[in-house]
Amino acid sequence: MMTEYLSLATRLTSELDELDQVLQRAEEGLRRAQTNSDDYYLDGVALNLHGYYAGLERIFELVVSELEHWRPADPHWHQTLLRHAATPVTGVRPALISAQTRDRLDTYRSFRHIVRNVYTHNLQPARLAELVNDLVSLHTQVRAEITQFVEYLNRLAQEDAKE
Question: What pTM was computed for the model?
Fold first, then answer.
């Protein structure tokens, strides 16, 4: 199991680095939209907000599939996965994120759905700005919580190496 824990920890760290870049792109797109009064940049902002949440779901899916051999299959699997990520599984893993983070991320889960089902020219610039600005602090929290989970995986790998 040591190799699996280390592999998963490495993949999660890589995904966090990708999320850093996605957030930077969303911030830059918003800055350009506001500076140039060019709504076309907002399309990129929306896409990056969508991509950020999709990246988090990828992290959640990696963990539950690798450690629990489970995947949500119900019609509302996005909601189920988010709730599950914030729930410890006794004897298997601690929660990946806190309940507070889960609640804040639910806004981005909902927005991801909107981006997939609404024409971008119908998105409201003020709402996009609000989401990007909130994501800056939320990302700090997400990164800290998932990094704590990565440290947990590294400890498991060290324990396995001792045996």
Answer: 0.93
